[in-house]
Each structure stands twice: as structure tokens, then as C-alpha cells.
Amino acid sequence: MNKQGKVWIVVTIVGLLVLGSWLIYKNAHDKPVSSQSLIRFRLQWTPQAQFAGYLVAKELGYYDQEGINVEIRPAGPDLKPQNTIAAGSDDIAVGVSNQIIAARSNGVPLKIIAQIYQDSANRYILKKNNSISSLKDLRGKKVGLWLGGDEAEFVAMLKTAGMTLDDIVVVPEGFTIAPFLHDEYVLSQVTVYNELNQIRDAGFADDKLQILSPRDYDAAILGDMLFSSEKYLRENPLAVQKFLAASLRGWKFCVENPEKAVDIVLTFDKSLKRADQAMQLKEVLRLILSGTASTKGIGNMEPSQYEIAERVLFDSKQIFRRVDSKSVFDDSFWNNVQASDKLPRIKGPTS
């Protein structure tokens, strides 16, 4: 073999070694998520319009297009997503910010990755004949509340009037509006997309109700958000970013095509009533498009909102160790989706 041939072989070998090293580096640092990559995604309840964006993303193949296989799992009253995420049996879930703050206060490293609802989903309602001019008027009266931590907002509201739960008669609420309709308590805690709609359907239009919002008392804990464990986020950054991009795309579809979105929701549970789901989605979209979403994008996270939630939880004795509000969320995935021009931009709230 002549000298020129030897040089060619050496150059070829060096080139192959460089190429091989680059491919190893690329696979280690920028490995695409294959269609076999499974994300175990836990809802906060059973499939309904509350979760339309994710159901749409699943049905229309948005997750598949990102190269991820998302398994949507329902929850219920005895299954808490914050517990399944902490245990590692789920990867990403829907929850409420107070759950993450409480977990971190107890040393459980969970993180919010997108704040889907920009307001609290809770309202506190009275019939017009029981209306009040001040929370002080509730002293000694029966009040229906969800307990186990869900009463934190109302505790903070009472504090603005110099009151505590000891100043009222707390009646634990179930999952029916019947006690409120039958005047078993004068005030009921409801969600805007579920129980409040049921009460309206029962003949109580808004002009027959007094509706109190925790935001008016600086006590709102923002509703549905997406969260995971620090461990999962650290080990699966690309999968998380792809999941978030597809999920936000699903919510954008819901904003622009609400009727089609309801059609898709109904395919996941044929027992649901279309009118109920259409109304639920309308209220859900109001929550999504309020706050900073109209200017910064769906899922934006504001530290000040978590500061409010942390204060509410501490004041209501739901947590006993203070939590740095900036430790509650990780906006890097949301920012990366935004930088890749995949973040849905929606201007203004729905009608």
C-alpha cells in the first residue's frame, strides 16, 4: 500500500471516530422521544370538559406527533394525584397549587410546570334571600365547605373579617347540591364549571344568587395546573417539554373550536350530557384565559399568585413550615416551548 493510501485510511478512521463520538454525544444529550416513550398522565377526576385540552391532544394525535405515548388515567375522591406522583406511579398530573405547596412544606419535591387556570375555580354562594353585606353576617350560621384542605380559601376570607371557622357552623359538603337547595346551610362552596352550573339548572339564575369570589378577598388559590416530581423532570426534560407543547396545543384547539372539543370529550365518556359539558368547557376557558394568559400565553406562571396561596395555607394552618413561592414551580419547560414558537397565544377571554 502506498503512502497516499495509508493517509486516506488514517483520515477515514479519524473521521469515523469523530462521527461516532458526535453520535454518542447527541444520543446522550438530544435523544428524540420515541413513539414508545410512555407518559403516565393522571387527571384530577374522571374525563370531562375540565380536562378537554388533554383529551383533545390525545384524540387528535398531538401527543403522537410529538413522539410520545400518553396514557390518560382518571382519578377520584380516594385517589390523590400528588400522592401518585410522589410515589412515582404516575409521571405528570393535573392538580391545584395548594397541593404542591403543602407537599413541599412536608419535604416532598413536586413542581408545577404550567398554570392552566389563572383563577380559583371555587366560588361561595348564597341564595338572594340569605344574602349578606359582610362575612360577619355569617356568624353562627351553617356553611357548607369541602374539607381536607379545600377550605383554606374560605378560612383566609373569614380572616379579612376577623373571623375563624369557630365563628360559623361548618357542614362538610359531599358531591351533591341537594343540601344547599334544601337550605341545610346558607352558603355553599362550589366550582364554577360544575356545581354552580347545576344550581343554575335547578332554577337559580345569577340574579337569584349572591356569588362570592376568593379573588375579591385576596385569597384565591389558582385552579388546575400541571405538575410532576423534580426527579422525573430532571430525568425526562425532552419528554416533559413535548408533553407540554402538545397539551397547550390541545387547549388552543378548545378555545378556537369549543363545539368540536365537546364532541371529543363525549367520546371518552358517552354517559356525559352534551349541554353540561358545553357549559363546563365555557367556564373552564374563562379560567384559562383570565389573568396573564391573554398577554403571556396559556399556562403562564406568576410567583405572586403562589405567594398568595402559600400565605393562605399558612394562615389557615394547612401548612406549618413556610415555603419559598419560587420553589413551587419550574418555568423552564414552558419557556422552552415558548421559545420554539409552539406556545399558543390567545388574545382576550372568551364570551
Summarize the structure.
With 351 residues, the chain is an alpha/beta fold. The protein contains 15 helices and 10 strands.
Can you give a write-up of this model?
It is a single chain. This protein folds into two domains: 38-119 and 222-339, D-Maltodextrin-Binding Protein, domain 2 (3-Layer(aba) Sandwich); 122-217, D-Maltodextrin-Binding Protein, domain 2, CATH 3.40.190.10. The protein is globular and about 55 Å long. Strands 2-1-3-10-4 form a five-stranded mixed sheet, with helices on both faces. α2 packs across α10 and α11 crosses α12. It is of the alpha/beta class. It has helices spanning 3-29, 52-59, 62-65, 81-87, 97-105, 152-159, 178-181, 195-201, 230-235, 237-256, 258-268, 274-289, 293-296, 303-315, 332-339; strands at residues 38-42, 69-73, 92-96, 110-114, 122-127, 142-145, 169-172, 187-191, 209-212, 224-229. It starts with a helix and ends in a 12-residue tail after the last helix. It has 15 helices and ten strands.
Q: How many distinct folded domains?
A: 2
Instruction: List the uncertain runs.
Output: 2-35, 347-351
Radius of gyration: 24 Å
Order of secondary-structure elements: HEHHEHEHEEEHEHEHEEHHHHHHH
Main beta sheet strand tally, sense and closure: 5 strands, mixed
Mean pLDDT: 88
